[in-house]
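Notes for week 9. Today we move from apo structures to complexes. The key idea is that a small molecule is not decoration. When we ask for a structure prediction with zinc ion present, the ligand SMILES becomes part of the input, just like the chain. The input block below holds both the sequence and the ligand string. Read it once before you look at the output, and try to guess where the molecule might sit.
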Amino acid sequence: MMSSNRKGEASGVHRNPGARNAVLMGLRSIWHTLLDTIFPPKCLVCQRLYQPASVSAGNNHLAHTVTKSRDLLPLAHRSLSAICCQECVQALTAISEPLCSCCGMMFKQLQKDNHLCGDCIMRPKSFRMARATMVYDQQSMAAIHRFKYAGKTQLAKPFGGLLLNTYLRYWQHDAIDMILPVPLHSQKFRYRGFNQAYLMIDRWQTISAPNPLTAPHTRLRTDVLTRRKATVSQTGLDRQRRLNNVKGAFRVRLPKTVRERKILVVDDVYTTGATVDECARSLLEAGAAQVDVLTLARAI
Ligand SMILES: [Zn+2]
Ligand SMILES: [Zn+2]
């Protein structure tokens, strides 16, 4: 082993660490292609065996695309194709403008600018602005359910990357003081073992893109907002029942920390917005200056 290293050094072939890394990466890529051919991986979403497309960049190289691209698909492809088949990735639909300037609902007419939707005019929201990455449809629901309910936490990093892309698009130049994942009730947390929103934000640290959590004034907190009511699942409830279900569900444990602060609440899915709006209401009541909402998916 020693002698082969010395030989390499003597010949100058591997003296450059960059060249050595390139050779190692090349060998690794050939090895993985070979393994994928013999043992094709199983798609984490549809659970079928698939041949991964050759993707040169992994999650660690999301940086430039995250800040420049508004197109979900290339980003989703890069971040998900190592663990999901092409069919599952390509079936995801990005949220695109024009949107409701408040709740982020997608409008069908493509020509107009963002403006308030009828629902936000009739029933003003507590939060200032909600934005989401992708449409909550059958496909994204399948993927999110595999993450949340089947414990496929490998999805946290690619989902986190997509979420970060949306964050950078809408809040990169805003001074967000605090990022709060929507809390689970302690019973649900114990049962599931993780908070899906927290896990996605936590993965921002492993992606080499501008990370809001490294800004001196921005804090990720899980001890500020708690869920005091073990609400039943919102799935299948109509609007009024959803509102009643989450009313008073949250408590701001540390009101001093939110006073005069600009807060971003993060969740996996926005359906009617009842949950995040109740979070916003509680935070504003405790003295927050402003509450925004970021979710991975949104019903349209
Ligand atoms: Zn699939
Ligand atoms: Zn709206």
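Residues 94-298 form a domain with the Rossmann fold fold (CATH 3.40.50).
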